[in-house]
Design goal:
Helices cover 31% and strands 24% of the residues. It has 15 helices and 23 strands. A 5-stranded mixed sheet has the order 3-23-22-19-18. A 5-stranded mixed sheet has the order 13-5-4-20-21. A hairpin with a 2-residue loop joins strand 9 and strand 10 (271-274). The chain is globular and about 70 Å long. It holds the Pfam family CP_ATPgrasp_2.
């Protein structure tokens, strides 16, 4: 069978596996010939094997819906997304360049603010960011690395060019699903991995542990590393426990930790054990009730004091979210030029800042054509997708923009690339994005590929799993070009 039948082919989009005639891209022909040679019944049977595999492995995620938490099996499609190694190497360089500049920016924000004095980034962009923490002023973590873990969302347009859609610098999630997707595919298609040069991604937990070890303030001892989770009701709890187990670190909640004499300790059956590195999966405002939210039961009283004394490393560092702001995103190309004296390797999506008079006027006149996003939200919440919005929704967004223009940006609706996806008994095109994960501390590291998220509804651009999206394995293939 062909991967996509003619009636399902939407030639206006760049498809990752087939060309505009529906023929497999020649660089991936071995894989696409294999998949295309399977009958719909065989593909359906393998998809059933996938679901059984996910159930046995206990891969789940949580959707917050109407005030209730609903655990669901991880949605996964068995047709992978392929990227050539040659193209990926250039993309990796761009991701490292971008995070390096972002870390320079965060360090500058909390110290000299040279980029403001030189009129590259306006002061209001920083001061009005919800992620800006004045409590971090005058501090600089090891290697100047505030955002040690970043998940940048990439999309392709109709020409096949990659664009960075956003940078997730607070507590980016999804890497555990990237790793589990590969394990599932190896069980379902072992013959493909024997015959294809597909780069592995399984070393991420080791790379993460090494980065965390490098951040330890006590370099003369093997550090005690903990993963700090809000607990079992958090939507990413599966990932928290998974990463702790894979790294050989302790999974803890705030009640398991205590501060004494400006040092952080974990309570154990053998007494207190000093903690050197906290990979925290709790937002800034909840990590220390002495400094931020006094009602927080999730964090540890005195934790910020220990961090500022240099007796523990917090990853990502408090305050890193100032660069997670979607208004700040618009200035990243300028940051790269300013701090690194280089041209950006990866493009930004053109962005209108509603706080600017001219941009706001354009946005209000073209809401039906644009995607409008709040500056500090994530997970696809609070967005307007103009071409798919009702007249009532558009008018609602017109008012919220006028009420708080600093909080909104707008971008053109890109023709996101597609990947063939098994939909009932047929294979159809579905839109995708890609979230690679970048580590930065003493050294930099980028995952081979990332988490491909797929919109499971025909024509939809919403790929977030919390909004009904699914996922695919991402294969970086050495095509020997």
């Amino acid at each position: 069978m062909r991967l996509i039948k003619q009636e399902h082919l939407q030639a206006e989009f760049f498809d990752e596996l087939v060309n505009t005639q529906g023929e497999p891209r020649k660089e991936f022909s071995q894989v696409t010939d294999f998949l295309g040679g399977m009958t719909p019944v065989e593909l359906g049977e393998r998809q059933q094997d996938v679901q059984l595999c996910i159930r046995e492995m206990g891969i789940s995620f949580t959707v917050y819906s109407e005030g209730e938490n609903i655990d669901r099996e991880w949605p996964f499609d068995l047709i992978p997304r392929l990227i050539s190694l040659k193209e990926w190497l250039r993309t990796k360089d761009g991701l490292v360049q971008r995070l390096t500049a972002l870390n320079c920016f965060i360090d500058d924000v909390y110290n000299e603010q040279k980029i403001v004095r030189d009129n590259v980034v306006p002061a209001y962009v920083i001061e009005q960011s919800k992620g800006y923490r004045p409590e971090c002023q005058g501090f600089s973590p090891a290697y100047g690395a505030w955002a040690n873990i970043c998940g940048s969302d990439l999309v392709r347009d109709d020409t096949g060019a990659f664009y960075v859609l956003e940078d997730n610098l607070r507590v980016p999630s999804g890497v555990s699903y990237m790793l589990e997707n590969r394990k599932v595919m190896k069980r379902i298609f072992p013959e493909v991995f024997q015959n294809q040069d597909i780069l592995p991604n399984s070393d991420y937990p080791n790379q993460l542990r090494q980065m965390l070890t490098d951040m330890s303030p006590r370099q003369d001892v093997t550090p005690t590393i903990v993963v700090l989770t809000p607990g079992i009701y958090n939507s990413a709890y599966f990932e928290h426990s998974y990463l702790a187990q894979q790294m050989g670190a302790s999974l803890v909640e705030g009640q398991d930790l205590v501060v004494e004499d400006d040092k952080l300790y974990m309570k154990t059956v053998d007494g207190l054990c000093q903690v050197d590195v906290v990979y925290r999966r709790i937002d800034d405002e909840f990590i220390d009730p002495e400094v931020f939210n006094p009602d927080s039961m999730l964090g540890v009283a005195g934790l910020m004091r220990v961090w500022q004394q240099g007796n523990v490393a917090l990853v990502n560092a408090p305050g890193a979210g100032v660069a997670d702001d979607k208004v700040v995103y618009a200035f990243v190309p300028d940051m790269i030029r300013y701090y690194l004296n280089e041209e950006p390797i990866l493009n930004n999506v053109p962005t209108y800042l509603c706080v600017k008079d001219d941009d706001r006027a354009y946005v209000l006149d073209h809401l039906e054509e644009l995607v409008v996003k709040p500056a500090s939200e994530s997970g696809g919440y609070g967005m307007l997708i103009g071409p798919h919005a009702s007249a009532e929704e558009i008018e609602e967004f017109r008012q919220v923009i006028l009420d708080n223009p600093r909080n909104y940006i707008a971008q053109p609706t890109l023709k996101l690339s597609t990947v063939p996806t098994l939909c009932d008994a047929a294979v159809e095109q579905r839109h995708v994005d890609l979230r690679p994960f970048i580590l930065q501390g003493k050294d930099s590291y980028v995952t081979e590929g990332g988490l491909t998220r797929v919109a499971l509804t025909r024509g939809s651009l919403v790929v977030n799993s919390s909004q009904g999206g699914g996922s695919k394995d991402t294969w970086i293939v050495d095509t020997a070009e």
